[in-house]
# Entry
Amino acid sequence: MRARNGQFKAARHFLESISAPRLIIPGNHDVPLFSLFMRLLRPFGNYNKWIEGLGAREIIFDEAAIFCLNTINYLRHQQGNVSREDLRKTAEWLDAMAGVPWRIVVMHQHLANVPWRRRPGIIRDAAMIVNALAEHKAHAILCGHVHYHNVSPASDFFPGVKRPILLITSGTATHKRVRGREGETNSFNMLTFTADQFSITPCYWIDEKQDYIPGETKSFTREYFK
Ligand SMILES: [Fe+2]
# Structure
């Protein structure tokens, strides 16, 4: 929550309990908020010490290739930023992954606000980023930060986008703050890939069952992206 050693230690313990391949990117709470000195001097100091080595920035399966970006602008704390250099690297990576059926890009902050729930922190130059990733044939962009599940075609927010691309946000799997003042349910997204189909299922925490229960699955075939 505040990028402190004890919080990172607990996060590390949790992450180490996940035996599957891990992709990990920082969020805006992974840089110090109140300690301006630390934020300017070593914004990712504690993150790098506890978390960085635990996860990759890309994973390539037979059916899907996934690439993660660090969008944290430590000077602004909330608003996300994709550097020109990172955008160029992502475009090159997408081109190189042309032979993999599904290509996914992950970033912490969101690229658009749904009309019924507005959150601060939208990635700077979002329309340009979405267009660039669509042009290089990404199928979906996964975001966190907003704390709720949503799947929308990018064209809902950016009518000029030249190719179909999905904007997918996920809920927060464990943080109790979403259950209180934000009125949300803890959730995570489960993504399933076959060569021909890409599906997204939100899984919601149900107190009575003490478990995550799958919600409605949305599926997209290759036809959709033509
Ligand atoms: Fe966030």
